[in-house]
Amino acid sequence: MFGELTHMITNETNREKADRRIPFNVFDIFYEILGNMHGDEIRIWFQDNELITYVSDNGFLPEDKKAICEKNSSGNNNMTVGHNGFGIRLVLDRILPEGDVFSTIYSLNDRKKGAIGHFSSTKPDEWLNFNENDQQYISKFNIKNHKKGTFFKIPLEYAYVLDFKENEDDIKLACNKYLSNKIADKEVKFYWNDHEQIVEKICKDEGCLVIDYSLGYDSINDQLSSTHKLPLILKINKINGNSDYDKECYNEYTQIRSIKKNTNNPCSFFTKFEDGQLRLNRCNDTVNCPFTKKNVAIVDGSQVVINGYLVTYKAIAKNLGGKTQAGNFTKIDNKYGGKPRFQNFVSKTTRQFSIPVDKTNIKPTNIGEHVLKFQSQIAQEFFSRKDNDKNKNKKTNITCLVTGDKMNISTKNYETRNSSQTILYSNTFIQKNNIDHCIVEEKKEKRNNFNNKTQKQEVGKYAKYESTLYKDCPYYDKDIERCPMCDCICSPSHKVAGHIQSDKNEGTTDIMNCLMICQRCNNCDTMLIPERVILRFGINHPITIRLEKYMIKTNKNHKDYFENYRQSMIPSDASTQSTP
Prior knowledge:
By secondary structure, the chain is α+β, with helices and mostly antiparallel strands. The chain is built from 14 helices and 25 strands.
């Protein structure tokens, strides 16, 4: 029916017009230039309307010389961020002055030079030898070895000269961020106009949680259909370099489409499609961070790292919570105890992100969004345990000062002694000891705990009612479970069974006295849970109201405490006043 089919022909004129409509800002330009560099010395000069770069690589190899003259061709880019060889050509076409103007590439290793112009211009076909003028020009620049590396001289369109001058400080900061891991690890020395840049890591090594992971599915089929419905699984291979990690704290396999549904048992046939590494840390000292002085949006969140380079100009904040348009994390300190400084080390062929030509606009795919949610969840649990461990190692001495009708408390985490007398104050119940001053000391005592069956039943009850309790809450996420006492994110596997009436005060170990709460809230062992929540948040706070509703729905012990408290707030003579 049909004759022999021929290949489609590209209209290069229209293709070039389309390419020139791809949006590029100054940061895209410099990230693309840096993305083609790999060496232990990188230098950038901006002078005399020219941008000049140097990297101490092996010069231009034969495949590099061929690729730079072709669109969508790559040379030896295994250790760089370059993907298909198109980005650097797009940059040069964009920033060169109009007309027959060329950038010059000097390959120092073999003393050869080539010229790259706009899309329609690449010459010469053969690379030429250096002449005396080339030698003199290169010798003016302060580089360690004039016989090794690649030297680029790029004339600039006047509009870009102005743009670069106006944004030079921000551009330099962006380049420092891009190279920050390499600079801090002393793998690269980076110079801006001959001034060496000293940069610390954004995600510091100290206190960092490092997770080596694989992504895959529970299937023996490694050629799954794109429409398959198998849940995405993240397998933890190592924690902080150790494959023999605590599997009580970290599930080896996690179904990350729904963080609630963690699988503790090995998959039958785990088939991976990608490896990566997460580095999760937080920053409490934002005042002295050079990046946050300019723009917190470039550091607060999760960075995409390819071959050690931070390729996203702005950190990804999606699924991490608390982000505002100004780039600030508002409620985030309640989640992580600091600003999130996360990094996800992936390959150039990752399925977690869509990597366009302008790499600063990398976006997470559906898979990447699930991994971001996993980062948030596991970071919160890690930092919560870390902070709890610090608190446990501290001896808590708290002085309650009772003066008139007010009580001033020096800290939130405290414990009261037994007393037969309860005094009602403006918005709290307190236990009165020795009139004006009571010194309370935290003690650890062995107590009667709930059995596993009771704990599982309580987990199921809370899961049943959670969506109802958070019905009008704007930040509610059905895949994220929270502590009913403080509202912090806490997965069922990291909750502990708390006594509504403490064991010390003869509380029972049946389900009517059980509430699954976070470890931090479980520190208060003698105070009734309703009393503790009212003392902390007040009777009309949403957390208090949700807890009351849950305790009433599940017929918990002391469910009437909240209403009794409200009644006690009514003046004693109010009920005796007649209606006029």
